Predict the 3D structure of the following.
Amino acid sequence: MIVFPYIEFLGLAEERIFRPMIPMTFRANGKEFKTYSLIDSGSDYNVLPIEIAGVLKLKISDQPRYSILGAGGNSFTIYKSPVEVEHSLQKCGFRDVKWKSFVYFAESGSTILLGQNGFLNRLKVVLNGKNKKVEIVP
Amino acid sequence: MKIEKKYAGKWIAVKNNQVIESGDTLTKLTKKVENRKDQKSLRFTLIPSGFIAGRI
């Protein structure tokens, strides 16, 4: 089992905010983008800011675009990646966990979201909020 | 790792669980760190501008 601590956000409220964000690397076209991504069980897909498509040299202008709704009813435009993107979960002392999946790029300035298709359907993920740890079984 | 309020809505670069640089856009941030020798070991992420409740 691979364990990651939640990331703490200071000053948003009187209480500290902890979020389940984990180190991920996305690869395509010989390029890679190392990041921290938020696990979001409410997201249907893995959603990345559109700038990352440029880093990975993915041409999305010809890709189908979709409108997707947030829980609050707000709408976002997203583009499906033209190819499957390699996902790599990394932690010192553990072998990298890798898989490929399509991702969606959002124009909205969304943070990087790991959702149901492409992440939660690939791994066993426990959000241990009491201990503020993400526990992942590949 | 702890993220301070001043980074809300910004892209950040992280090394060894410390924020080492930030920028309003990913392009500006990568420009700031492009000459660092440790560039390959940096991780980048976009910090939400506030509370999150059922984003996408």
About this structure: The longest strand of chain A covers residues 31-39.
